[in-house]
Write a structure and sequence with these properties.
Blueprint lengths: L28 E5 L6 E6 L2 E4 H6 L19 H4 L3 H15 L8 H7 E3 L4 E3 L7 E4 L3 H11 L16 E3 L5 E3 L4 E2 L2 E4 L8 E4 L3 E2 L2 E7 L18 E8 L2 E2 H7 L13 E3 L4 E2 L7 E2 L19 E2 L2 E7 L6 E7 L7 H9 L10 E3 L14 H4 L7 E3 L2 E3 L7 E10 L2 E4 L3 E6 L3
Parallel strand pairs: 6-22, 8-16, 9-27
Antiparallel strand pairs: 1-2, 1-5, 2-3, 3-4, 6-7, 10-11, 12-15, 13-14, 13-22, 14-16, 14-17, 18-19, 20-21, 20-25, 23-24, 25-26, 25-27
Bound molecules: calcium ion (CA).
């Protein structure tokens, strides 16, 4: 699919610093507020946010058939509900308005419509009705299976036949920058006879990419793998914080619960699947062959470099993991087709996370559990040893796709650990 807004030769009259996540070819959507503005929708460009309410109210988006007040809201759900095609039309029009040879926005309009990033607070972009977490990295599932169960049978027999997932907790998803309290709960130390109640001692991050859906389906119907991407508006970075000690004691037989639902962090900008179109790539070969309902032609993986940095209080951030979204075994179309194959309905603004993304080499593992091999091989962070997260540690996740001089980034997904409350 050729999209004018993706043309790599485009330049904007807005200054975009070299290495910015937000060139004119990206134009992700988010929700922001300032000292003077209540929460409204905007688009990121360089170090600025373009106010979509201003553009809409002053006629710059006329002809797109947008409902009144669509951007003057706390969440983007109603905009997403207009569908991918409408989202594409808005992005294409915003691209036109920002191109260096376009003078529709005069100096006065530019002054009002563009807000410096340093003056805005970015908010959770969606009212999230449902959150599902997949487990789609073969390397991650193999590492965890080896540590928690049996290295010889690390992958369970179902793993290569279906994208394993579970229903997570939507209420505790927060936007990047929101601190997370160390969770307390039941754990059973290996040498103890009975469980104890205490703050988690094995607090971890999970590097994931999440997609948001833009359609509402009817209970009893399914999305085909072929059509599923029409229901995916865009992607965000996602940190699925995990308390390994709570998780290990509670997870049999029904899976993750309190070891996961105390908080998950989402990056603030929804990077559209349209902007990522040039970065499609093939995924790993799938063998054994999948059932027909999971079979999909063409490339449905995306080449997105991912990084995790760890920062102890008052010190410099240190990179601890570099990996790539393309390493996942299952793609998003397969995840969504599988999720709905039984008739489960999806809603606008749902979040579907990939599962921890680990690559083949130890430096590409997407959690401390794997990076330190359950605490046996501590990491060195500015002279400190780290097995799991300490109070006041910050975790910073970054991601970008880059090709032919165009860099499409996500902005930071960060969180700091506060002591147990
Ligand atoms: Ca997870």
């Amino acid at each position: 699919m050729k999209l004018a807004a993706n043309d790599r030769s485009l330049k904007s009259w807005v200054h975009v610093p070299k290495g910015s996540d937000f060139p004119i070819q990206n134009l992700p959507f988010g929700i922001f507020k300032t000292k003077y503005l209540s929460a409204v929708a905007g688009v990121a460009i360089g170090n600025h946010v373009l106010d979509l309410v201003y553009l809409h109210e002053h006629g710059y988006l006329d002809g797109l058939g947008l409902p009144p007040g669509i951007f003057n809201q706390k969440y983007l759900n109603d905009f997403l509900a207009l569908g991918r095609r409408k989202g594409r039309e808005v992005r294409e029009r915003v691209s036109e308005l920002l191109q260096h040879n376009n003078h529709e926005l005069n100096a006065a309009a530019r002054e009002i419509a563009l807000v410096p990033m340093s003056e805005v607070q970015l908010l959770l972009p969606l009212r999230i009705p449902n959150y599902t977490d997949f487990y789609s990295s073969e390397e991650h599932a193999t590492n965890v299976g080896s540590m928690f169960r049996d290295p010889k049978n690390a992958l369970l027999p179902n793993w290569k036949h279906l994208p394993v997932g579970y229903h997570g907790r939507a209420s505790s998803i927060v936007v990047s920058g929101t601190p997370i309290h160390r969770p307390k709960g039941q754990v059973k130390p290996p040498d103890a006879e009975l469980p104890v109640y205490c703050p988690s001692r094995k607090l971890d991050f999970e590097l994931e990419v999440a997609f948001a859906t833009c359609t509402k389906t009817t209970l009893g119907t399914s999305l085909s793998a072929r059509d599923a991407e029409e229901s995916i508006f865009g992607l965000m970075l996602f940190n699925d914080w995990s308390a390994r000690d709570i998780q290990q004691w509670e997870y049999v037989p029904l899976g993750p619960f309190l070891g996961k639902n105390f908080g998950s962090t989402l990056s603030p900008w929804i990077v559209t699947l349209d902007a990522l179109e040039p970065f499609r790539t093939a995924g790993p070969e799938q063998f054994p062959h999948v059932l027909p309902y999971l079979s999909v032609e063409g490339n449905h993986h995306f080449d997105i470099a991912l990084e995790v940095l760890l920062q102890a209080k008052g010190e410099a951030a240190v990179s601890v993991c570099r990996t790539n979204f393309k390493y996942l075994y299952w793609n998003m179309a397969q995840q969504l087709a599988h999720h709905t194959v039984n008739g489960c309905n999806i809603e606008v603004g749902d979040i579907y996370a990939s599962g921890t993304i680990s690559g083949p080499s130890p430096g590409s593992f997407g959690s401390l559990l794997e990076l330190t091999w359950n605490g046996q091989r501590p990491l060195h962070v500015n002279g400190h040893q780290r097995t799991f997260l300490e109070d006041h540690d910050s975790v910073i996740m970054r991601g970008h796709a880059e090709k032919n001089g165009v860099r499409i980034g996500f902005g930071d997904c960060t969180g700091t650990i506060l002591p147990a409350s």
